[in-house]
Specification:
337 residues, alpha/beta, Rossmann fold, seven-stranded parallel beta sheet, two-stranded parallel sheet
Length: 337
């Protein structure tokens, strides 16, 4: 199922005030798409839309909390009013909590689930109601935590597992109905965004991401590829694929890594910021696609770029196999039998 070229699309992006959502909105606008940006921080969105328009793009913004279905419906209504509808809907909005599951309050757990899971559910159902009539793409941003669990981000992992199950079931139902809607799940590994700084934090130090870390533009590129040439799911970051495969083959061994994973999530020498943006937005971390991850951030992911073009990947693998066969095959001596 192929969709319109990017330049002919209207794309809705939730969680567009920072991180992956912002990188996606900027890249889409640069590619000629008209963009509807949604997040809880209206002031940040207004500045981003002004930036897009100054660069010659078209965009509108909606201040909305995706955890409330009525507000998600306002996002769709804005897209219809401004541009006559939309062709791709991208659910990016998400938050996280760092800390032991037993230490986190019920209220914090509930708010995380409301944003990460129900926000994706509401966005998906509202989007599909529109897309099933005109065709298009639904793209949900899960995580490597859709396949793996991470200690001290237990409820975040649970919501991303739930997003995967919901997305897979919705895809099957749409196929059963014959709806002209593709459904993609993007599963980023560690991505250099403000997410750790925005987290509700129960640890004794500020959170950080376990390496290797990839840039948010790598995720945006995968999202927009699926808007035109949809894939079922995409892992962003080759290391993520290795970890997911390792867990499948040796789940017990992965469990033994818990102390190391906890240690890698604590930033050395940086005192904690406890509140984060779980319950309300903070202006100091909006408008930034990238975070301040210490250490090296990968420039790209060769694995992800290859996975976006699976036929070329298979052809390349076959070519390498034939070349290896030619090199390793025993050579004749030139004598006739």
């Amino acid at each position: 199922m192929n969709h319109k070229p990017l330049r002919d699309q209207v794309i809705v992006v939730t969680g567009a005030s920072s991180g992956i959502g912002l990188a996606t909105a900027r890249m889409a606008a640069k590619g000629g798409a008209r963009v509807v940006l949604a997040a809880r921080s209206g002031a940040a969105l207004a500045n981003i839309v002004a930036e897009i328009e100054a660069g010659g793009g078209e965009a509108v913004w909606v201040e909305a909390d995706v955890g409330e279905r009525a507000e998600v419906e306002v996002i769709a209504a804005k897209a219809i009013t401004a541009f006559g509808g939309f062709d791709t809907w991208v659910n990016v909005a998400g938050v996280t909590i760092y800390g032991p599951l037993r230490a986190v309050s019920d209220a914090d757990h509930a708010r995380l689930v409301q944003t990460n899971f129900w926000g994706t559910v509401y966005g998906s159902l509202v989007a599909v109601e529109h897309l099933s009539r005109r065709g298009g793409a639904l793209i949900n941003v899960g995580s490597l935590a859709s396949d793996l669990a991470f200690p001290f981000q237990g409820m975040y992992s649970a919501t991303k597992h739930a997003v995967k199950g919901f997305t897979d079931a919705l895809r099957m139902e749409l196929r059963h109905e014959g709806a002209p809607v593709s459904v993609s799940l993007i599963k980023p590994a560690s991505i250099d965004t403000p997410l750790p700084r925005r987290a509700r934090n129960y640890m004794d130090r500020e959170p950080m991401l376990p390496p290797p870390v990839y840039p948010p533009e790598e995720v945006a590129n995968a999202i927009l590829h699926c808007a035109v040439h949809p894939l079922r799911d995409v892992i962003v970051g080759g290391a993520g694929k290795v970890f997911a495969a390792s867990k499948e083959f040796a789940p017990g061994a992965f469990d033994l890594l818990a102390p190391a994973i906890v240690a890698m999530q604590k930033r050395p020498g940086r005192p904690r910021r406890p509140a984060g943006t779980l319950h309300e937005p903070q202006q100091d971390d909006t408008g930034f696609a990238k975070g301040d991850q210490p250490g090296y951030v990968m420039r790209t992911s060769a694995y992800t770029r290859a996975s976006l073009h699976p036929l070329a990947l298979v052809a390349g693998a076959i070519g390498l196999g034939l070349a290896a066969t030619a090199v390793l095959a025993p050579r004749g001596t030139g004598r006739r039998s």
